[in-house]
Amino acid sequence: MSETIDAVVKELANLGWHGLQAVNTRVPEAPSPAPDWAPGPLLKSHERTRPPLGWPRETDSLCPRCVVETRNAILRGERDLADLLDGRLGEIKARIAEEDGRILIRKTCPEHGAFDDLLSIDPEFSRVIESRYPGRDFRTLGDELIHRHGTSTIKYGRGAVLTIDLTNRCNMMCNPCFMDANQVGYVHELTLDEIKQILDDSISFKPRRQMSVQFSGGEPTMSPHFLEACRYAKEVGYYAVQAATNGLRFALEPEFAYAAKEAGFDLAYFQFDGVSNDANKHRHISNLFDVKLKSIDVLHDAGIDIVPVTTLVNGVNETQVGPLLDFVLANSDKMGGISFQPVSFTGRDEDISDEDRRRRRYTISHMAHEMQRYYGGKIDPYRDWYPLGAMGGFTVLADHLRALNGPDQPSFGGLCCSCHPNCGSSVLLVANRKTKVWSPITQFFDMERFMKDIALICDTGRGKKLTLAQVALSFLRNFDGRKAPSGMTLLEFLKLFNGKMGGSLMKKEQEQDWTVLWIGGMWFQDLWTYDFRRTEMCVIPYATQEGEISFCAYNTGVGWRQIVENMHMVARTKDWFETRGRHKIYAGDRPMEVPGVRKLPVVSDAPQPVSGAHVTACG
Amino acid sequence: MTRPGGRAGQEESGTLASLFLAAMRRHDRAGVLLHQDGTKWRETPDWRLERQVIRLALFLRERASLVPGDRVAILSRLRPESVAAELAAIAQGAAAIAIDPELPSDTVRRAIEQAAPAVAFVPRGPEREQASGARAVVCFEGKAEGAWAWSEALDLGGTLDTPERAQSFRAQAREVAASSRALGYLAGLDGGSSCQYLTHAEAVARMRALRTELPARKGAVALVAAPPTLAARLALLSFVFDGLTICAVGTPGRESAGLQPEWVVGPAGVQESERTAAPVPRRAAGLFERVLAPFRSDPRKAKLEM
Hints:
Chain A is of the alpha/beta class.
């Protein structure tokens, strides 16, 4: 009966939408609001610029050998940093093209020869992802002191997550690790004054953004300023504080989790490579999975959200994709999703051989097909995956609605992910915490049409009531209750949507049975896949003593990390240990002794064949 | 919200150290301490106080080789730093001896000689000389040759503050014996002053007596604007340990601008000025009197009577 009602509502809403748009699209577009935090009026969809997409195309890249030589010369003092800022050291053209059913990047250095790498095993998947990209955010304004890194300079966007490395010290010895922690021979650790200055600088230009701050490292909880940094970030107006953490501190000292929560810590971006100790053995702690379970319990108890983060390496843990998602679904009361990060060969892995690199390469397209295979087609690569930058479409609506609040406008723009479509993709699932029923949202909600409707609504720029009316009609016409999982009614979905919009539409409910899980694939670049068109619109920059630098330009590329850390190192590691004492490092494939660590029955980490599924070879 | 380790407020804690640990499991107040910064009151949240205590304790253990049974002299007016220093000492089984720097210099010198502290906290560099026999001297403000600055001690303690060491701090705090010395004070302020001690058990008993008739209330503010006498310290610690009261640490003679304290601990003059601003419950008068009665021979402490 409710399905019938939903179907009637859908059709009526569709009629209402078309009727309204018959008038709306004939009235000239109203000017966009111009909130104080923005460098100008909010962008209409046709005003958004786009990087070159599709293939074949040419782009600017780097020679993997020239870059390392140049960087080392700068670190040795043989070349000046100004050469990096003013020159185009190591830069070469690259061509992205489809070959034999794959997308490859090829480039040639006059000195070091030809390089190539795999970008996608499914060109159609990549085409669909790129087609769903809504366009860039604002160009930055007044940021000359913050964004000043030559051809690596960020030019677009207000960013989504600001990463600050609090320290390069770590209590693990992982491989892969692009931090090269414990190996570089020096300690780079920010003082509290430096952290505060970085946070102050980050809100000094336009677009003034509503970002998350992510404290990282090394292991950020090893910084003596972690708690104060969380507190200060909240004081200056950041709405969420995250940390990219291995979680060991919380397992070893549960009290710290509660202190962190009080100080302002909201979300653990939680390193998590597999659902067994064996699947985590490359991290060199023999009972690491058991310790991670303890951490999850402690974090959840303290009220801290958790998003597991998994580095995927072909031949190491690529079979963990399905079991990890199963784990998140089974623990959806504790977790908001999972972030898969196909490996990028940086840090210690810059010396990787071509053979090993090709063997271990893993892309988002691999991941999309693995999920399709594991779940028997329930997650569809072409229907369900959207570029991370598509989230910016929702921010457009949120910005628009908040700007219509008149004098009560916020002083920050909404969180806006507007990164290049090749940077990452994601699937949104709905899951019932009690019944464990789940499905992709796009199974029952026409996301593509909804985003086009949102663009039209914001472009025409009507008043608040009419805007909300159009949003409601679009919502209703794109929801198909007949395809929704059991228990997911229109009202339940509306509540979820309202929650994700920060309560913009109605009073937000605190406790809901249904939750949205974000399943993300974020593929950071390395010297073989590097594309400057991506770095100049990075939305997850590193904030450093030398300004804000694109994530990939910092961790790979010309190697801004090594340059900044060398410029600002605090001490040689040996001297640090002598004057300040050693910290314990968990490695050597030994177990950790943690009170309360216990084995829990968890989902099997062995891939479960689904009857009737067509198995697709990947890569 | 209650942190792991037990249900706060319901365990029979026999030492000041265990009361501190229990208090840090409760999080029902915006801040545990307030202090004046210019014209504004600044808060110290529970998590910050706890971390400062842990870090200071680790610093004292690693750099000053502080062991249970040692004595720590705190030559200072009451201030958030002196609270942290006192807690760091007693949580590690050392005795914290508070000495009012406003006392005559000869009195101060004799008191420190008697105490023979392993570690001394002083207000500023020049006072360092008065504690020259200590293994380590820490200046709350500024720095001096041969002494640690407060910020240096916390900075080093911050690096020492690993989960393993933090847990060893808690384990050591739980092992402190109720019969061991906790709070040292000067008895008699004339030429015959001597250093006396309360054990943990005695201090806890006095604090419980103090608070039995004044149960803690979430969000209540207490003002302690007194010299660092034993009575004032007991009152202050009781507010810290109840997990609910916000304790403002003021300077005797300065008004509590902007506060509306429910309790005031201070000399008569301070209490009178506070009473006109915010009446103090009359029941508190008799209660403080009973607690302070054993110290009536001390003319300075007599000023605390209402």
